[in-house]
Amino acid sequence: MTIDQLVQTTLGGLAIGCIYSLIALGISMIIRATDILHFAQGEMLMIGSMAGLSSFWLQGMPFWLVLLAGVLGGGLVSMLVEVVVYRTLRLRRVSAINIMIATLGVSIVLQNVARLVWGSEPLRYPTLFASGGVKFAGFTVSPQLIWIVLLSGLIMGVLILFFRFTRLGIAMQAAAQDPDVAQLMGISVDRTTTYTFAISGMMAGAAGVLLGSLFFASFNMGFLTGIKAFVAATLGGLGSIAGAMIGGLIFGLIETFSGTLISTAYKDAVGMVVLIAILLFMPTGLLTRGGREV
Amino acid sequence: MLRLSNVSAGYGAVTALRKVDISLEAGEVVALIGSNGAGKSTALRTISGLIRPTAGTIEFQGEVITNLSPEQIVARGIVHVPEGRRVFPRLSVQQNLTVGAFSPRAHGKEKATRERVFELFPRLYERRRQLAGSLSGGEQQMLAFGRAMMAQPVLLMLDEPSLGLAPIVVEEIANAIDYFRESGVTILLVEQNAELALSLATRGYVIETGSIVLSDSSDRLLENPKVWASYLGEQEWEFADGDPAQAANT
Question: What is the ipTM of this complex?
Answer without folding.
Answer: 0.86
